[in-house]
Structures are given as structure tokens and as C-alpha cells.
């Protein structure tokens, strides 16, 4: 990243702004006049909500009677051990999985009653890359932009700027199938934000991403929430959760068992870091040793 | 190790049956359908053998083995896979001896519904040949033939998969399919003409598989029993050795091919220059048009979809076969002026796998598509636009080829309205079927053709029904077209053309309304059905 770009005369451009707002990192602001501040639809409604959300798979309960309310502008960390129900919850909120009971939505819109209104307002970066591997990176972004109703010019400009921002310019003409894991993550992130959603769902967004890009993405996301967007973030990398999230929800066995700010969580659990607090919250103190045979020299 | 792979396959099958409703319904359907087909063939084989003299019967048995082997080996590539194979890539890092690996994969391939075909046909072979030769000889012959079929099938589909891995290979696949189509239809026409002329008894005696033909793998295997029946134990022993050598040779070729495939990456298709420089924003814009363009690109870039669309060349093979053979039922069509009007119906055979499964081809990307804010009806319209364009291109290609073949240029102008009608009816039925019973396609493994028969059997059953439904819907416009071209224009050609377009449009509009409504309600279910875990 070079010098900050100044807002240009073309109002459709994504303007990359740097603002030194924290001691260690700057924020990158994506700015367009149209829907620049991804505002919540009504000031009173939560940006993301769920009421009594339940999902059963046969006899097992993946998500149980989950109530959730995330305010606009929050950087919300959804934490939990593997199988706690985080991905299932996100899938139900975005409309990819039908709840067994309860409902969820974005702003004033119920996902299951007004799915299109919800989808216009969200961007999703799933943990597994279910991208179109036989499109090039540029084509994928164009396709997503067209589906979100952006004009051709808007799409082309945003695409080029996002590709440049995420260091994918040189690989824009390559098929996504030929991308590395980190590159796929970056192009998936670009596809998730190209339409400037008011709510962004990110499942392990930093997995496989190199350190330089990871820092850039962190800044970009932080800047995004500062402009009013809401981010729901699921990750097992606790130092990132600690750095980025303004509030954390911990899920266990499909239930939301704890919600607090990172500091509040640490205080509550008597821990110094979010990682310690999380482990204390979900697993208690685990002093199990590994199997004895692993302690012997390999043969 | 072989046992471990067999256990793995059976466990996967069992777990699939326990957890996947498609499999639970599809497995028994597949077993019954394949069993019924095999029973019919076995019965015909037994009947023919009992009607023939011993000498003719022995010749017929050799021909039967050759036909069975050829169909078994090539059918998965031409039509749809009959076997579910374990993906060898999953064992690439395992410390397994390569010979054990291919043996294990071959044994595992038998743990599938299609094994019912092998058991019934080879069982009948044992019974029929056992009476003529000895039961042990018949069993040895059938066993050798069975192993050859399994290994040969694996080798052939792996070889075609290897061809499809390269950029040029994907174009070559067209010629492979055309070759299979051409030789298949030519062989069928030749056999039908010869048997029609001479009768089965004289035909198999006149064209017995002797000399070098005995060295062919299935013929050598079958000859173990046939030679015993003819009182030639030495020939039987030699045939057995030849058959064994073929098994070892095919397994070795398969193993080498796997070695190469496991260490060589698949070549991605190279996007054309316009796509490289401008992405998708360069031409038509808007949800439906961009979705259609994405689909069209996938028709070219996805090896499986490319194979579907290039399947039209099978009909070119059919036409070429009729020219080469020059006799029989196919030649009759060559003299008909209306032959080009068959093109819209022929294209039904080509486009159906895509028209009836609009979302299955998305596989896991369905979840990407379905979080986009596009009304379900627009999704269907965008996909339909691409399928319609491809169907029109295919119909034009076939109609012109058939006009050139028959000289029926005068009826060519009726092809466009009939093609529009045919495509509209295909999409009308296809949209509803795509939403109600989408077919899950497996993740592409090392072997492109590896998939479970029973996995999508429920959808395949609905597709067969759909095929007949489309055929029934085409009867009225086809009848009007016949009145136009075959009975001295009883109906004005303009009326026929207008009727065809209107008929197709009515059904299409009704379908797009219904399918849009269904998709809106069933969207999460469609995602669940098409996603590959």
C-alpha cells in the first residue's frame, strides 16, 4: 500500500483512506457516496438478530433456542469450540439453512419472510470457499457486482480497486481454481464487500492469509465498522478476536452462554487474555497430558 | 490392504444410506432398475443360446462377451457412471503398494448397485456355458471376464479423465465421444443388418470370432469355456493365459496412469483474451444476462458440462454410420426431406442433463449463489437464457448437418420455431424438476466419472419421467409440423410455426412462474441437496 488515495471526483470509486486511529494500525476506509455509511435501516432495530433460533439434525441439536442482538457498528466475535453451532447459526441468519424453530434477520427484515431485502444488505465470507472456481478473479467480482445490481462502471471500478488493494491485480485474469488458499480468501472477501453491505459475516477470514494481507484486511475491516457497518466474525484465532472485536459471544453446544466486551470477558473469567478467558469459559482448566507413546522418539 | 479399501467403500455406502435420503430412496431403485435390465439381457442371452446349434452357440457366446465388455467399459463415459469409485488421490500419501492399491480400488468398485448386473449376467454365463462345457471352466471364464470388465472399465474412465485434464484433451474428448458414438451405431447397424439378412444362427457362424480376434481380452476369457466345450483344452489354457495377461496389462496401465495423474496437476482452462482483459463487465450487463454469461463460460470450462454439450456429436456419428453402412433402418432416413426437423428432438438427448438439473452443476457454489440478492425467478431466467442459447446453437449445427445429409434444405426454415418450442418445453419441465429433485453431482476426483449410481438415482428417475413428459408435450407441435411437410401443406407452414412457438411459450411461462415460487420456498433444501460434503 502506498500513499493514501484522496477522494476523487468520480463518486462511484471506492476511496481508500488511511486514518491513524490506533497506536499500532491504521484503518482503511472504503468510501462511496452511494450508501457510504452502511446505515442501519432503523435506528432502533439491531443490525443482526435472532429469536429462539433452533436447528436440529435428527436427534442432535446444533443450535438451541438462541437469542441474539447485535447493534449497528459492532464488531461482534462469535466464538466457540468446533461443533458449537457457530456456522449453523450464521447459515440460518443468512438464509442458507432453514431453522427448525425461531427466526432471524437483518435490521427490520426477517430472513425467512423477506430474504431478498436481507441479502441486499449482507456480505458473506464463508469458512469453506464455495466460490466459482472456473471464473477468473475479475469475473467473480463482476459477477457478484452484477448480482447486487451495481452498474457496469461501478462494478469495473470497484473491482479494479479491490484487486489492487488486496494485491490481486496481477492474478485477476487467473481462474480462482488456480489461486492459493490465501488468494481465494482475499478474492472471497472482495466479493463479500464489493456491494458495501451493511452487515458482513466473516468465518475465519484470516486463515491462510499472509501477514501483510492480514494486516491490511484487519485495517479494512476496522475502518468498515467505524463507518457504521456491522461485522459478525467467527474465528479460532483469539489474538485477532481480542484486537478487533467490540463484543464477544461464546457458544457452547448450540447455546449462547456468555456475551461481553473483550475486557469484560477477561474480568469476568479472571484472565489476562481473551484466549485464556475463552478456554476457562468453555473447557475449564485442562491439564491432560498427551499419549505416552508420543513422548517417545519417532521410529 | 485390499480388504481395508473394500471395508472403506462399504462403510461409505452404508453411512451414505443411513444419512442421505436421496441414497435411501435411490439405492433400492437403482438395484431394482439395474437388476431388471440385467435380468432381461440374461434371459435373452439364455434364450438365444438354447435356440442355437452348439457350434453357433459357442460363437455367439464369444460375441456376447465382446459386446458386454465393450458396453460395460464405455457406457459410464458416454451416458452416466455406473460405478462409484474411491478417489485414488485420497491414498496418494498412504504407504500402499501400487498393485495393492489398484486391486483394492477394483474390489471396492464392485461394492455398488451395478454389481447386480455383473452377478446376473456372469451367473447366467456360468449356467449356459456350464451345460456346454464344464462348470469349473464356465466359472473360470466368467471370473476372468468379470475381472476384465472391472479393470477395463476403471482403465478406460481413468484414461478419459487423464485426457480431460489437459486443455487440448478437453477438445480431444469430443472426438473420443464421436468415435464411441460412431463405432457403436455403426456396429449396431451392421449387426442388425447381418442378423436380419442371415438369421442369428448363420450370422454367428459366418462371422465367428476366430484367429487374432481370440486375443481380444473378453474373447480370450470367454474362450476358456468355449474351447473346453469344443474339446480343445490346450486352446482353453492358452486363452486363459492371454486373458490373465490382459488383466495384468490393463491393471499395469491403470496403475501407471494413476501414478501420472496423482503427480500432475490438472490444466485449468485458459480464459479467452476478452475475459482476461475485461472480466465480465465488458458486454451485456444485468443480473440475468451476467448469470447467463457465467453459465455459458462454465459450459466451456467445466469438463463435465463440456462433455454434455459435445454429446451432440454422437448424432453426427449416427449420421456418419448410416453413410458408411448404407443399409438398414438408418439409411431410410437419409432420403427424407423432413430429416432436419428431427434436430430439435435430437437435442433433447443432449441438453437434458443440464436443463433438468440447473442447480446441481453449481455444487457447493450454490451456497454462494443463493446468498446473492437475486429473485429466484431471475436465477432461473438467467440460467435458462444460457441453456436456450446453447440448445439453439446445437440445433442449428444438427439441422444443417442433417439437411446436408438428406438434401432437405426446403424444410430447414421450420427448424427455428420447432427448436424454440422444443427448448421451451425442455426448460419448462426442467425448471420444475431442477427445483423439486436436484441431482447432486460429486466433487471431481482423480476420476471425473467416479460417482454413485444410487446417489442421484432419485433425480435420475425423475429425469427419465421428465424425458417422456417433454416428449408428450412435443406431440401436438410435431403433429402440426408433419401436417405441414408431409401432407401437402394441409396446414399453412406459418400456422405451424406460430403454433409451435405459442405452445412452447405457454408451458414455459407457466413453468417459470411455478418453479420461481417453488425455488423461493425450497431454496435451503436445494442447497442441501446439491452440496457435496
Q: Briefly, what is this?
A:
The complex is a heterodimer of chains A (299) and B (533). By secondary structure, chain A is α/β, with parallel strands linked by helices.
Number of domains of chain B: 2
Which spans of chain B have pLDDT < 50 for at least 5 consecutive residues?
none
CATH topology of chain A: Rossmann fold
Strand order of the biggest β-sheet of chain A: 8-9-10-5-11-12
Query: From the helix content, strand content and strand pairing of chain A, which structural class follows?
Result: alpha/beta
Overall average residue pLDDT of chain B: 84
Oligomer: heterodimer
Key terms:
heterodimer, A: 299 residues, alpha/beta, Rossmann fold, 6-stranded mixed beta sheet, 4-stranded antiparallel beta sheet, globular, disordered N terminus, B: 533 residues, mainly alpha, 2 domains, 21 helices, 76% helix, 0% strand
Describe this protein's structure.
The complex is a heterodimer of chains A (299) and B (533). In chain A, 31% of the residues lie in helices and 24% in strands. Chain A has 299 residues and is of the alpha/beta class. The longest helix of chain A is centred in the C-terminal third of the chain and has 16 residues. Chain A has a single domain, classed as Rossmann fold, CATH 3.40.50.300. Chain A has a six-stranded mixed β-sheet with strand order 8-9-10-5-11-12, with helices on both faces. In chain A, strands 4-3-6-7 form a four-stranded antiparallel β-sheet, covered by helices on one side. A two-stranded antiparallel sheet of chain A has the order 1-2. In chain A, helix 6 links the parallel strand 9 and strand 10. Chain B is mainly alpha-helical. Chain B folds into two domains: 262 residues, no CATH class; 245 residues, no CATH class. Chain B has 21 helices and no strands. The longest helix of chain B has 38 residues. The radius of gyration of chain B is 25 Å and the shape is globular. The interface between A and B is large, with 42 and 37 residues.
